[in-house]
Amino acid sequence: MGEAPVVEVEDLGMRYGRGQNAVTAVDHLSLTVAKATVTAVLGPNGAGKTTTIETCEGYRRAQQGLVSVLGLDPIADRHRLAPRVGVMLQEGGAWSGIRPLEMLRHLAELHKDPLDVGMLVERLGLGQSARTTYRRLSGGERQRLGLAMSIIGRPELVFLDEPTAGLDPQARHATWELVEDLRRDGVTVVLTTHHMDEAERLADQVYVVDRGRVIASGTPKELTARGAENTLRFRGPSGLDVRSLHAALPEGCKVSEAAPGNYLIEGKVDPQLLATVTAWCAANGVLPDGLSVERHTLEDVFLELTGRELRT
Ligand SMILES: Nc1ncnc2c1ncn2[C@@H]1O[C@H](COP(=O)(O)OP(=O)(O)OP(=O)(O)O)[C@@H](O)[C@H]1O
C-alpha cells in the first residue's frame, strides 16, 4: 500500500445559480494527488478549475461528492488545515495599503519556522517593488507576492491558481523553479493552468479538464504518447500529389497539405518512414524544406479529445 493521497476529490459536482439559469461548473470530477508531487489541473477558461480548487481550499462547499485534504474536511477542519496548507488565489489577498516587504514580514511572524523573507523577495524579483503599496503593484507583482505569501509558512500542501498567468518569461521561469524546489523539499503542489508547456514542464500528474469533467489524466509522457504518435512536416512546392505520397507510406499514415506548400504526415513516424518520405521526394524532384519530426504535445491531445484549441 502506498501513502494516503494528500488530496482526494471524488465525483465532485458544482453548479452556480438555480433552475433554468444554473451553470454546471464541475461535473462528476475525480482526482487524486500524491505526496510531494506536482499535480496540474489543465484546461481552458471556464473549464471548472478554479471552482474545483476553491472547493479543496474550503472556500466552497461540495454540492455533490467528496473532497478530502490531508485526510481532513476542507470546511469542517478549516482551522486544523490552515497552518498546513498554502493558498495562492487568482486575485489579490493583501490589503491595498500594505507593502510586499511588510506583508511578508508580518506573515513570517505568524509562523513558527517561516522561509526567509529576503530570499523570497530576491527569488521572485520583488526587490524593486518591496516598498510599493499593494494597490500600486502591477498584476504580475501582485501575483508573485501572492505566491510568496502562500509558501512563506512552509506549508505541506500548496494550491496555486494560475500561478504564471500574465507573467513575463523571466518571472514564469522563477516561479517554475520555485515550484520545483518545493517538490524537492517534499511539499505537495496542486496548480491550475491553461498553459500546456507549464503542465508539461512541472507536473508529475496532469488532469485535463474540459466543461467540468476530467477528459484525460496521466503523466505528461503518458498523455502525449496516446493517439497519433508523431507528426512529420515539410515544406515544398504547393500542389504535390499527396495521393501518390500516401500510397508510398505504410498503412495508417495520414498525409495532407495543411496549407499551400505545407505538408503534414501523421502516424508512426520512425526512421523508416522518414527514409520513405525523402525517397519519394527524391523520385519526384522535390527538395523538402524545414523537414521536422514533431512530438505530440498536450495541446494536440486536447485538440484530439475536444476538437478545440486549449487556449480559448
Ligand atoms: N460565481 C459564479 N457565478 C456563476 N457562474 C460562475 C461563477 N464562477 C464560475 N462560474 C462559471 O462556472 C464555470 C467554471 O468556472 P471556473 O472559474 O471554475 O473555471 P476555470 O477553469 O477556473 O476558468 P478560468 O481559467 O477562467 O478561471 C464557468 O462557466 C464560469 O462562467
UniProtKB/TrEMBL annotation:
InterPro entries for the chain: AAA+_ATPase, ABC_transporter-like_ATP-bd, ABC_transporter-like_CS, ABC_transporter_ATP-binding, P-loop_NTPase
Q: Does the keyword Isomerase apply?
A: no
Q: Does the keyword Ligase apply?
A: no
Domain ABC transporter as annotated: residue spans: 7-236
| GO molecular function terms noted in the UniProt entry | ATP binding
Quote any Pfam family the record assigns: ABC_tran
Q: Where in the cell is it found?
A: Cell membrane
Give the way it sits in the membrane.
Peripheral membrane protein
The record's annotation in Gene3D superfamilies points to: P-loop containing nucleotide triphosphate hydrolases
Q: Where this protein primarily resides, as one coarse class? A: membrane
Q: Which residues form a coiled coil?
A: none
Q: Which UniProt keywords apply?
A: Antibiotic resistance, ATP-binding, Nucleotide-binding, Transport
**Entry-linked PANTHER family:** ABC TRANSPORTER ATP-BINDING PROTEIN
Protein name, please?
A: ABC transporter ATP-binding protein
Q: Which organism is it from?
A: Tenggerimyces flavus
